[in-house]
Design goal:
By secondary structure, this protein is mainly α. The chain is about 65% helix and about 0% strand. It has 13 helices and no strands. The chain is elongated.
Length: about 200
């Protein structure tokens, strides 16, 4: 998992104070080390949330997100979810990667994400199902596809189903192909998905 990785920065600037104070340091290496020191500490979620909101350095943001992953509770999920709406593609990608690392913890948050009023959020949420247990991912994505009006969101869900879907997805995929018959790329993607799912499971 790329976000959780060791790093020997060689820095000599580790704060001599508390990790919480170091999160406010003007020195990026001190903030990076402070974030690592908070990994797994549930009571550090508010401090990590505040630090993430103001952090401009990608590797320090990654360290903060990694600390939140290692905490892995609903509070840490709540901190990460708003970054799915970030205008910064790198931040969005890092948030998706972090949330994908928590497939069990993210499960209760999936229904509201997949019914969000913003189609971009629904599309990104399909990626969060990729690391979930296959039957659970299939159920969530099929519930989305059955009512999803945006072809690009359906295509994103179908892409994930192609990788993790079970045979239970086939009827939903057939109905989606009929509904979007005038959108050629979707029936083609669905035919690929159905072939892959049937082939893997037969």
């Amino acid at each position: 998992m790329p976000l959780i990785r060791g790093k020997n920065s060689g820095a000599s600037s580790e704060s001599s104070g508390s990790p919480q104070a170091a999160l406010d340091s003007p020195d990026a290496d001190s903030r990076w080390m402070a974030a690592r020191a908070f990994a797994g500490q549930a009571d550090a979620v508010p401090a990590l949330a505040a630090a993430l909101a103001r952090e401009p350095i990608p590797r320090v943001r990654e360290a903060i997100m990694t600390a939140l992953i290692r905490i892995g509770n609903p509070a840490s999920i709540d901190v990460l979810l708003p970054y799915l709406r970030s205008q910064d593609a790198g931040v969005r990608a890092a948030a998706i990667e972090a949330l994908q690392a928590l497939p069990e913890a993210i499960a209760p948050f999936m229904p509201p994400l997949l019914s969000d009023g913003d189609s971009d959020v629904r599309l990104l949420a399909t990626e969060l199902a990729r690391n979930m247990e296959a039957s659970q991912a299939t159920r969530l994505l099929c519930e989305l596809i059955e009512h999803e009006p945006h072809p690009n969101v359906c295509a994103a869900a179908i892409d994930v189903l192609t990788e993790v879907g079970t045979l239970e997805a086939l009827p939903t995929l057939e109905r989606c192909a009929a509904r979007f018959a005038a959108t050629p790329f979707l029936p083609f993607a669905i035919s690929v998905a159905m072939s892959r799912i049937s082939g893997e499971k037969s």
